[in-house]
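Researcher: Hi, I'm a grad student and pretty new to this. My advisor asked me to get structures for two proteins we've been looking at. I'm not sure of the right format, so I'll just paste the first sequence and hope you can take it from there.
Model: That works fine. Here's the first sequence with its structure tokens right after it:
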Amino acid sequence: MKTIVFATGNKDKLREIGEILQGLDVKVIPMSDTGFDKEIDESGTTFKENALIKAGAVAAYLKDMPEYKDAIVLADDSGLEIDHMGKMPGVQSHRWLGDRTYTQAMMDIIEDMKDVPDEKRGARFVCAIAACVPGREDMCVQECVEGMVDRKLSGSEGFGYDPFFYVPEYGCTTAAMSREQKNAISHRGKALRAMRDMLIGEGIL
């Protein structure tokens, strides 16, 4: 069985990767299970750069630990790009919150965009997944899902900015989708599947 160390402490992300890798002979654990508790300086200017920084930091920590010598390290960096805001908050999606909750930040955006017509409310969730595999070159993939900023919050599933990210083809926000629907179309779901396929194609999984 392969061990995958996911560079996150977010339980929702861990659940999502577990669901997408279901059926493979892998064990997914959070970085905290290895003892990694350092603050990672996400200094990249793109999602891919930050994902590679995070995966590389955890891989460097594990390299001298015999129990993780064959472990695959995965890391993601994701965020929301809003066209009306010049693709902000982008890579700053979490830090941009400041002292606000996600709900407060979304309500602020909805208020700021109250006069913006539907055709100019375009937005996308973007996710990059990086993999550090012992003895291999680092790998990275990036995917996105297109949608728009809704005029209200709706749905109780999901997390983060999901309650106001409206996907016209589904007629609802990603927070109003079932877990299966969201995994099928989400930026992270698409990126995880692309990385899974790449690792399988390289004979790593």
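Researcher: Oh nice, that was easy. Here's the second one.
Model: And its structure:
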Amino acid sequence: MKQQIKLSDHFDVKRMLRFTMPSIIMMIFTSIYGVVDGFFVSNFVGKTSFAAVNFIMPVLMILGAFGFMLGAGGSAIVAFSLGQGKKDEAQRQFSLFVYAGLVLGFIMAVFGLVFMKPVAIALGAEGQMLEDCILYGRIIALASPAYMLQFEFQTFFITAEKPKLGLYMTLVSGVANMVLDALFMAVFRWGIVGAAVATALSQFIGGIVPLVYFFRPNTSLLRLVRTKYVGKWMLKACTNGSSELMSNISFSLVGILYNFQLMKYAGEDGVAAYGVLMYVNMIFIAVFIGFATGLAPVFGYHYGAENYDELKSLLKKSLKVIGICSVAMLVFGEACAYPLSYIFVGYDASLMSITLRGFMIYSFSFLFAGFAIFGSAFFTALSDGVTSAIMAFLRTLVFQVAAVLVLPVFFELDGIWWSIVVAEVMAVLLTVFFMVIKRKKYGYW
């Protein structure tokens, strides 16, 4: 039986991969929710409903973004307290962040129910596409409390030294989503309602079951206990996790802008093609996010314990792993562009052509994205939320917005596909800049 890996251990590459693999798989399965919905909606309901799901998805991701903020920002604080030996304080901090996430989830659910229709209209949806956006969006919004908790617990399971338990939980909810999608759409023929209900139910599994686990006595480092509101903890968590919040909100806003540009240059087919790219992108990027968030508590722990030699070692090994994965993903993306496009939209020749062309260009972004994602998560782990937020803001909003507005003017539809590649290159240059100027302050170089 393999010995459990602890935050205080020395990490070689093998141990690093063992420790982060559950987090990587968790993120992949979380991403698969949308992918499975997209596959069944596209093939069993039609491309109008498929475009509607992709059109409203950025709005739904904003609702869950606060869970990422509290999970990433809060786990760095909890890990830091554990590194200092303050276990009781870490328990109270953990409890506060979870309870706050639950309350925020209910607020987001109400917001989604009330404003889903006016938001969809404002974004330009109309006709059947508008009706599908409202129906799908409102059902998903109802699950916002569980959706937010699910994102939080993905990180807190790692901080609690139970990454495998978090993995198992995500696998169960992910498989449930796939089975329910097949049952509700392929068998019962519930259409887009079936897709939304399947995803909502799987999110309840991923969010509520861990809540019960941490409420009961357990063998992890963390348990939900009585706590009180401490403003400085919440402020620190929100500031520290602001990069994750910014990344998710910016990603959603940019997605909305992409859809607007695609409607202009390619119509409904362009939105559907972009949806396919986003599904594949979510899975590929999930590997980098899972690796970065999986190691974040380790960085936070050793920074709190002032183990600077271990920080240097972790950083060097991490960059090597990301470099190898980046090249592998580019090769895989180019090689699998045709079969992956065919799986989703092979039934429509024109849509297939647009998707395949976009895929071949978009895949180059995988060569750069991992370094920028890791850089932002790294500074979050060191409790430098300001630097992390600046990096996330520029990468996910400023660079992408500038690129997607300018490049199509010269290259039309191809310019939209190249936008993400250009934005990621600029984000890597920014990451290198901050890594260099902050190296002495944190002692990782």
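Researcher: Is there anything I should tell my advisor about the second?
Model: You could mention this: Residues 4 and 63 are 35 Å apart (CA to CA).
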